[in-house]
Amino acid sequence: MTAGFLAAQHSLTDPSLARALFDVSSSPLPFFPLTVLTATLAVGILQGAIGARWVGWFTALVSVACLVTAVIGSLDTTSSVPPFALLGFAVTVIALSVSLFRVPTPA
Asked: Stretch 89-95: mean pLDDT, rounded?
């Protein structure tokens, strides 16, 4: 959506280019690798490799949200994908960073 907006702002008058940029940016395909990444991160955190345990459970919840977003986005091609999973991933990264500062890692 941002790429389509920028194309319109910079007067790229080709409507097919703006539509293609909008379609690519609203695709649910990036959520499938993000689902695998967050699920793997959740398993690592819950096994005690890094971070606090509550961050692991939150990351598992974000992984489920990414999967739901990817499935809903791939089924409904008429609307753009809601950014809830991306917001959850950003909160996960921040929470894990803070958790790494607060919880000492084993030597």
From this structure: 90
